[in-house]
Amino acid sequence: MKQTYRSRTAFVLAWVWLAFVAFNVFDLIVRYSGKASLVALAVLGALTALVYAVALRPATVLTEAGLVGRNPFRTTFVPWASIEDVTVSHSINVHHGEEQVLRLWTPMSSARERAKAQRRGAPAPQRGRFKTEPTLTKGEQAAAEAFSGKTHADWVGDQIRERAESARRRDGQAAPARMTWSYDAIGVLVVAVVLVIAAIVVA
């Protein structure tokens, strides 16, 4: 079963930006004013390429065969049995091979999110003689304990760690990781840079 994790905030903001760019491109074409419009279109193109690379493309994908880490300019595939350890700080760090570390771009854990998770994990204060909090079911209590003090990045890190441990017990032998460059992101950025240079030359 394939599971994909992204930064929801970055993903939503990226699509808002694309809608903003589409409106402005239409407006610039309708009200074309020569060199100034060309420069504006080139700048929008460059910024959109950057948004694609850092907000739309990054993802952490859990497949049957292994972990796929899509960062802005490269994609790394690590078989489950090759993963030796997983640590979570600001980002999820996957240790594999000979002291190699794959730092996943998403999901990340901000200081604010971690502080919120710690508050969520703290026991609720008892106020007065009578309980005013609703009684949780066993399922709700189990879910609350599982997420107690953990951020989304911590939870995804746990999923990666569990799959890796299961694969090491089952397979034993670890295959090497594979890294490929993200030609789509690189190509988009190259086109954006060419547009900016052309706009500057024309202007």
UniProtKB/TrEMBL annotation:
The keyword Cell wall biogenesis/degradation does not apply. Keywords: Membrane, Transmembrane, Transmembrane helix. The chain crosses the membrane at residues 12-30, 36-55, 181-202. The keyword Hydrolase does not apply. Residues 114-136 are annotated as: Disordered. InterPro entries: CFP-6_PH. Residues 57-88 form the Low molecular weight protein antigen 6 PH domain. This is Low molecular weight protein antigen 6 PH domain-containing protein.
